[in-house]
Amino acid sequence: MSRSRNVADTQDNNGGAVPPFAAGKNKIINGDFSINQRAFTSTTSISTYLYDRFTWSGGSFSSGATVSAQTFTPGTAPVSGYESTNYLRMVTALVGAGTSTQIYFLQRIEDVRTFAGQTMTVSFWAKANSGTPNLGLRFNQNFGSGGSSSVFGLTGAVTAISTSWVRYSFTVTLPSISGKTIGTGSYLEFRIYIVAGSAVGDVGAVGLQDNTFDFWGVQAEAGSVATAFQTATGTLAGELAACQRYYYLHASTLSNRAIGMGCYVSSTSAVLGFNLPVTMRVTPTATVASGTDYYKLDKTPTEDWVNDFSLATTSSNRYVLLFNNTQASGTAGGAFPVFTDNASASIALSAEL
Amino acid sequence: MTRQYIAVTDENTGRTIISYEENGFKYSFLDDPANSDYQAYLRWLNGEEEQKGM
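Structure tokens for the assembled complex are given below, as produced in the milestone run.
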């Protein structure tokens, strides 16, 4: 039996945002940086998260790297017909740099089985403020807790970029995972290096560079060609949900907002429970802003306030139960709404890799 | 600043809650090997330096 093909999944290297699209083609989530739950604006702190799913790392320098969120002026996004909102800027002015210095941003794709043993292509748009600095791309197959040792390799040759938005692509055949042990929390990671001293493995040719680097439109797909860019899910709602598998901001920046229902389970322990909008990868880490009377337990006849909450062991990746047993004081039983009572109050849940 | 973890076992579930405070936030998570914060906690227990990539 022969079957016609209705949807082509390869395009030329110009990669404009033109149909057809193939759902799930891009394994990078939030590749257009449209989701920013952490309200990231600018940071000099290594290993902090940026736009959702993206973080940055490096080492062996004393100061001089800033990563910031930037907004496209309408009509200036690099792909005609794809008016994206945000791009990523990394600025280096290195102090204390040496042969081991490195700076890169990265995304971890859940499950080391992804693209294992396959030819695949990573692509993105980039530009520099001046000159023709280098970029390097490296993969890391991480086999998780209890798994085999990580496998690092060069995804593509070091490339010099220009001062205009240009799409760059790197094609590699990833190692097979045959014979490996896969533990919990495994992932495939891609690192885009903007700084790498000569001692930094196979990307050492990138060099030590002071410049301003801009990035947008990161894609990782099967095959040897960078096809038209699309986000992992194709919709804003889909990208948000995909991001919320790894990070969910439940409450932030607004005072006197309902954040769930609570009750006293004993005279000294109050709990607060709420559903997660998306089943998270694992039971998350709770990050709760802590400050005097940040959270109000709106019970009768009198309210009670607590400074923070901790994650209860009965939480899961679908439902979160928080508790406070150090300040709360009341009578067991009887439900009440819980509110933020300070603009700095926030509750975030993280299940990042 | 060195991170100071506190681990408490829940008598009802037998599971452990690990928490620490940093920059005005309270972090808490469970004893799940797939949780990257728990992996960092185990490295801290073993006296290993926090991984910063390689």
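Residues 36 and 42 of chain B are 10 Å apart (CA to CA). The interface with chain A takes residues 10, 12-13, 15-17, 19, 21, 24-30, 32-37, 39, 52-54 of chain B (CB under 8 Å). Further analysis is deferred to the final report.
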